[in-house]
Amino acid sequence: MMNLNFKNIADSYLFSTIARKVSEYSAAHPDANIIRLGIGDVTLPLAPAVTKAMHDAVDEMGKQETFHGYGPEQGYDFLKTAVQGYYASHSTKLDADEIFISDGAKSDLGNILDLFDTNITVLVPDPVYPVYVDTNTMAGRKIIFMDANESNGFLPLPDASIHADVIYLCSPNNPTGAAYDRAGLKAWVDYANRENAIILYDAAYECFIVDDTLPRSIYEIEGAETCAIEFCSLSKTAGFTGTRCGYTIVPLALQRDGLSLNKLWLRRQTTKFNGVPYIVQRGAAAVFSEEGLKQIQQNLSYYQQNANVLAQILDELGIWYTGGKNSPYLWLKCPNGMKSWDFFDLLLEKANVVGTPGAGFGANGEGFFRLTAFGDQAKTLEAAGRLKDLLGK
Ligand code: PLP
Asked: Does the predicted model carry a pTM greater than 0.85?
């Protein structure tokens, strides 16, 4: 009677083990000033333009003449137009019907699997954001892993000898911070079109790209509209982790087995989803206003400065890492061949700094460690100094 595939999902002990280790250490050392560089959540508040738009929307909801009930499941036109304008500002032309407003990338990354048969092969990079593996495992799909490692800079390229039906790419990546260049993405797009595969492209961290030569959307790559679905989110772009809003792009040109994936997704969403709250969509649209974009850029710059501080220390220490430049994540090789959890213990005990052991993101994460730039600036600076003192000896 039950979906027994749930038995195959690995329990995630990563963040609970970190929390337990930190609380045990704090209990034994109550005076320790612990700095957390493990967090993947934002810390800065919503931009004033966003809260103003949301307040105004609340007022509208309280008046008969401007009250909103059920909205379009795929999002209000005012927000779709704003997203369309954002893509256009990065030279990507989208049709409004290709944009689906969601309550965040995580839901859509899981829900999109409704469109695919169970009996397909799914290709997932290792290490990876755990949602891709767990959602497919729940549905009983076969997953094959591709190695992301030091030798490919944690940016694996297609292996022509392997066939996949669905491919997950995340760029800039969580946990590695590595971002594909145009040539890398082009190789994936060509492979997917050749294999009749679909790329599920997670662009949740596109807003951290500062290098203009790197693509912010897979649709900047020729041929992507016939093989890729893109997922994006305002969570990291504009601090919407607790407010919930994202968008998914399903091109009108995307067809498989004689079916339009855009039409299937519309049908799926209108059947199982009733849209993002009007108030939240008004706040989201304000992100893309001139004022909103300026304000969120200040927050992004704050995080980018943290990333720069951490990157500079790793450079000084001669530690190999990816990310930190077009990403809020730094993925470093643990010094002296240490294992991820041993390095975690060392940093906690000797520097009172908490990060995330890479082994928690997949087998290839062993020996690596993730630091994040989402913390307080003064504390990040202090943590960087402690890392230098500890590891520079
Ligand atoms: N995709 C990646 C790679 C993430 O790291 C995260 C959140 O940490 C998400 C998606 C989830 O985004 P959202 O908050 O929009 O659900």
From this structure: yes
